Structures are given as C-alpha cells and as structure tokens.
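Problem 12. The chain below contains 98 residues. Write out its predicted structure in token notation.
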Amino acid sequence: MNPIEQLNKVFDSRIRLGIMSSLLVNEKVSFNELKELIGVTDGNLASHLKTLEDNGFLKVQKGFIGRKTNTSYSVTKAGEKAFKQHLDALEKMIRSLQ
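Solution.
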C-alpha cells in the first residue's frame, strides 16, 4: 500500500500538526499555551481545535482559575492512534525517497 493513502487529511494543516504534537508530549495544554506555542490568532486556533474535537481527536476541559475561564485540551486515545498512524505514513514516505 502506498504510504500517501495512509495520511489523514485532518492533519494536513501545520496548525493541527502543531496542536497534536503539543498534546502528545503534554498531558494537558491550555488554549493560551497552544496559541503561544503555535503562533496563531484566537480565531484561527479555535477553528482548528474545533475540527480536531469534531473528529474525536481531543478532549476539552473548561474551568476557572480564580474568576477567569480556563480551557485546556488533551488528546484522546483515538486521536493519539490516528496521529501516530499519520506520522508513520509520513515517515514511510520520507524513507522511500532516500
């Protein structure tokens, strides 16, 4: 099977790649931390997070720190599996070029 067929279109965006990469190495990441790490606007980040959430790849936890709202995200088991499969397919593609 051609590795390109194993790529997941949900992860085509560099922003979604950044979000998932951040969530795989951290148990939980806040909205503001993700925004700073990836370097995007609130609206842009929110739309990409919504896409990942709609696909069942991340969980959203809403709460408060003092009187301020705090939204944090973590990767689901399905999200971890899908992202690792995507990365494996990318790796196979790169290796086939060498």
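Discussion. The CA atoms of residues 52 and 58 lie 6 Å apart. Students who got a different answer should revisit the alignment rule from Section 12.3.
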